[in-house]
Specification:
Length: about 250
């Protein structure tokens, strides 16, 4: 049995998230179907985490075991021949039997894109959250820095979190290594890197930072919200289409 590490990118617009669901188009389902067509084997590739409906990935990682002798580079080409155009396998590697896409992950990076122009170009609409209204972007930057380090992120988790989402302990403690806002022309982009992320955590953080930008909260309020460990104290969940899984580190 060969253990594969599959790195893939996808446009999540037309998928109901990563996790396979009966009767619905999912990324995990599409990848499993492609592997079955190419190798004749029924496997369920395990992702580094479950992206939600509408969320995109620049470099999601999946792992699975197969018996097919097809060389890894050829397998990547064959999978891309049968996958939908919205999913591309970037590489296939054989890291050894101990590797697991989810359990072996040490850090992940996400990006959230906000389009600040008065008019959002139609070819960007599926990949950004359009917010042309006034924001104090410096205050949002200060608020982002407040979450650095290890914290209990219960206030920023979904009210009904998916248990075992990252196959980690039930604790909501996570360590954030980087949390910054960056202006790139008409886009305001949030970049965050940490040991792991709870269900809706990045989207809830962004929703809270937007309240800071609007003046409804002060940057220091983010620390108070963290200490509260109560979802109702934080901001709303922003739309999924602006969120990208950028990379997974091992």
């Amino acid at each position: 049995m060969r253990n594969l590490k599959i790195t893939l990118a996808y446009d999540g617009s037309e998928f109901h998230g990563w996790q396979i669901q009966p009767g619905l188009a999912t990324v995990q389902g599409a990848l499993a179907a492609a592997i079955a067509r190419v190798t004749g084997e029924a496997v369920l590739p395990q992702g580094s985490g479950r992206t939600d409906a509408g969320v995109h990935a620049l470099a999601q990682v999946a792992s699975c075991g197969i018996q097919s002798p097809i060389p890894a580079p050829n397998l990547a080409l064959a999978l891309n021949d049968v996958l939908p155009a919205s999913v591309r396998v970037l590489s296939v590697e054989e890291p050894g039997p101990e590797f697991h896409a989810r359990k072996s992950a040490r850090a992940k990076s996400y990006r959230y894109r906000i389009h600040r122009g008065a008019i959002c170009p139609p070819f960007l609409a599926r990949y950004v959250y359009h917010h042309p209204f006034p924001l104090d972007e410096d205050a949002m930057g200060a608020a982002a820095g407040a979450i650095l380090g290890e914290h209990d992120f219960t206030s920023f988790a979904a009210v009904d979190p998916e248990k075992g989402r990252d196959d980690e302990p039930a604790s909501n403690l996570r360590t954030i290594f980087r949390s910054v806002w960056e202006r790139q022309q008409d886009e305001l982009i949030y970049m965050v890197r940490g040991t792991g992320f709870l269900h809706h955590m990045v989207r809830n953080l962004v929703g809270t930072f937007l309240l800071v930008g609007k003046g409804s909260l002060a940057p220091d309020d983010v620390r108070r919200i963290l200490r509260a460990c109560n979802r109702s104290t934080a901001g709303p969940t922003v739309p999924a289409q602006g969120l990208f899984l950028v990379s997974v580190e091992y």
